[in-house]
Design a protein that fits this description.
By secondary structure, the chain is α/β, with parallel strands linked by helices. It has 14 helices and twelve strands. Strands 1, 2, 3, 4, 5, 6, 7 and 8 form an eight-stranded mixed beta sheet that branches. A two-stranded antiparallel sheet has the order 9-12. Bound molecules: flavin mononucleotide.
């Protein structure tokens, strides 16, 4: 059916990379010229050919019931290719507690599918795949037995589904998760415009960090730099909280500070726009009538970004002091959490150095 299959993946802890690899393997088994490439290394203008003999796919994790901003941006930058076939596969966080509990991809798949449709691609498949949940800022990594159970199940599902796509069948799934995703849209929007910036500013390296630089070298969004006299990692706003640094750190030194997250929450929820307006009213009594809802929202948003940045800057300076570092290390739950990365995946597999 196809002459060429091109798969792009974005992956934090290796789940999406693994799913993309299974798909490329299945295509190769059908004798099709196939390639997988990370969004960081992709050259889509050269790699994607036009026409129905070519199949292009995007595989990526679900974040906040939708696609990560990095993936949305990647899809928006793809070249127009009218008639080229396309599929979209979000991976989501499955868990095992007694029985298997699936994740929820929400709008992740169809948002990217919509972008591809607007660029002229012909949609052949949308299907989420449950891989082990990897959000280690919230929960500990799953037990290895459960991890292997979930991965084996995902491999069977992925190869069967993708096998059908390769034979030319159209397979669109996930309409109930899409409906739930639309209901949860406010959560997804809040995550995209606020949550991901906030989360990026709760990471830090404990005293175990030896500044090896692996986290910065392999960060898929190049959001990490080593800073300060101790050369500790600093996370910028482009961080997607993909958990690669946390899951792959050779010394398990990357933590998410829960006390800092609570402190930040109190600071960012101060209604800065309201107070500013109140203060300005004492100079210009009529200003309340002129200033409407949206400028206040804008002021609140600028305040949010600025306060998160400044608090994290200060935190990052203080974290170099051993006593303070120890305090934040022992008061965060992540310090006691098991780490997770897809067991068969190594950092060098990501080809993003
Ligand atoms: C910040 C963040 C948000 C997440 N949000 C969701 C979600 O909304 N729904 C879901 O099913 N899984 C969610 N997950 C789990 C991941 O989507 C899932 O484990 C995925 O397979 C990870 O793939 P990767 O290793 O390629 O990054 C989230 C994970 C992270 C780190």
């Amino acid at each position: 059916m196809y002459k060429k299959v091109t798969i792009y993946y974005f992956s934090g802890t290796g789940n999406s990379y693994r799913v993309a690899s299974w798909m490329a393997g299945a295509a190769a088994a059908h004798g099709i010229d196939s390639s997988i490439s990370s969004t960081a290394n992709a050259r889509p203008t050269e790699e994607i050919d036009s026409g129905a003999k070519n199949l292009v796919g995007l595989v990526f994790p679900t974040h906040g019931f939708t696609a990560p901003w990095h993936v949305i941006y990647f899809a928006l930058r793809l070249p127009r290719r009218p008639g080229t076939h396309a599929f979209v596969t979000p991976t989501r966080g499955g868990t095992k507690i007694n029985g298997f509990i699936p994740g929820l991809e929400g709008t992740a798949g169809y948002l990217i599918a919509l972008i591809l449709l607007c660029k002229g691609y012909r949609l052949r498949g949308v299907q989420a795949v449950d891989m082990p949940a990897n959000w280690m800022a919230l929960h500990w990594g799953l037990h290895p037995v459960n991890v292997s159970g979930i991965i084996n199940r995902a491999q069977v599902k992925t190869t069967a589904w993708f096998g059908e796509i390769l034979t030319g069948r159209r397979k669109l799934g996930g309409f109930i998760p899409l409906f739930l995703g639309l209901v949860l849209l406010p959560v997804s929007v809040a995550y995209l415009i606020g949550g991901r910036f906030y989360l990026a500013k709760t990471f830090f390296a404990s005293a175990k960090c030896n500044s090896c630089g692996v986290c910065a070298q392999y960060c898929p969004t190049h959001s990490l730099t080593l800073q300060g006299k101790n050369r500790l990692p600093y996370w910028s706003y482009s961080c997607e909280s993909c958990m690669r640094c946390m899951g792959f750190c050779p010394r398990q030194a990357v933590e998410v500070s829960h006390p800092l997250a609570i402190l930040l929450y109190y600071i960012i929820t101060i209604p800065a726009g309201y107070y500013l307006l109140k203060w300005l009213t004492s100079f210009f009594p009529g200003i309340k009538e002129i200033v409407s809802f949206w400028p206040i929202i804008l002021i609140d948003y600028v305040y949010f970004l600025l306060s998160v940045y400044l608090v994290y800057r200060l935190f990052h300076l203080l974290i170099h002091i051993p006593l303070i570092n120890r305090f934040f290390t022992y008061t965060t739950l992540t310090h006691y959490y098991r780490r997770y990365h897809e067991p068969g995946t190594q950092l060098k597999d990501f080809q993003e150095e």
